[in-house]
Automatic annotation (TrEMBL):
This is Transcriptional regulator, LuxR family. Signal peptide: none annotated. The keyword NADP does not apply. One of its GO terms (biological process) is DNA-templated transcription initiation. CDD domains: Sigma70_r4 (cd06171). Residues 104-155 form the RNA polymerase sigma factor 70 region 4 type domain. One of its GO terms (molecular function) is sigma factor activity.
Length: 172
């Protein structure tokens, strides 16, 4: 493949899917700026391996795996502890059916451990099977199941007070 054809094909793919990569990145890290950085890192890595990636059956799965690996690499790096001292987020306006529930869920997701958050995002946002999530994360299906179960249990605990307060306010 000629370099200009390769670049045009990559540019077309990225133009169509960059928003999706950023949204998945946001669900992983909970910060739009970091999500943009993760998507950019994934795009650079994808470009480096575009000859291989363009031949796979599902390029989105390839890109998603790169994105998740970039997120997990960042969380394991000592550098991330020093570069992200400010935890405030700048929210983009988005259509929301229930803004309060959405904010509660985002806050609860942010409190999960990185691997638990990754399994929840892959399983329930990206709609991957246990086997597909295990392949993306490079672990066994048992690990995906246990991480997902722990994540859901933690989410139930984290979201329960908000639901209880909401119900208490309704009954008064």
């Amino acid at each position: 493949m000629a370099r200009s054809d390769r670049d045009a094909e990559f540019t077309e793919y990225l133009r169509a899917r960059s928003g999706w990569l950023t949204r998945v990145g946001y669900l992983l890290c909970g910060d739009w700026h970091r999500a943009d950085d993760l998507a950019q890192t994934a795009a650079v890595r994808l470009y480096r391996h575009w000859n291989r990636a363009s031949r796979v059956e599902n390029i989105d799965a390839y890109a998603r795996r790169i994105l998740v690996n970039a997120f997990l690499d960042e969380k394991q790096s000592a550098w991330s502890r020093f570069t992200f001292l400010h935890r405030g987020t700048i929210e983009r306006e988005a259509p929301a059916l229930d803004a309060d529930a959405s904010l509660d869920l985002r806050g609860a997701l942010a409190k999960l451990a990185p691997r638990q958050r990754a399994t929840v995002v892959l399983r329930y946002y990206c709609d991957l099977s246990v086997e597909e999530a295990a392949e993306v994360l490079g672990c066994s299906t048992g690990t995906v199941k246990s991480q997902t179960a722990r994540a859901l249990a933690n989410l139930r605990v984290l979201l329960a007070p908000a639901a209880a307060i909401e119900l208490e306010g309704i009954t008064r």
